[in-house]
Design a protein that fits this description.
The protein is mostly beta strands. It is built from no helices and 6 strands.
Amino acid sequence: VMNHPGETKPGYQPVLDVHTAHISTKFEELLTKNDRRTGKLVEENPKFLKNGDTGNVIMVPSKPLCVEEFAKYPPLGRFVIRDMKRTIAVGVIQEVTHKDKTAKKK
């Protein structure tokens, strides 16, 4: 988190920019808070992240989005979080969970 006026909590809904896509996304769950310099785990399931914090977050886009893990294809694995016309955070995608294609639409 680079430039957020308060705390980033689960339920936060910024804009996710990946490659050329700009999609609204929701912070579903904060998994970890890590040390900024070493990357070592500081806290599991933190209540919030604030300026200067790093962590792992589960994000759910509002629409289907074409992304890939950074290790497999770096151009589709980098993202920027924007809100209020400001860059809030940057990061890389570590894991992608695909929707079940067999589920029926109602």
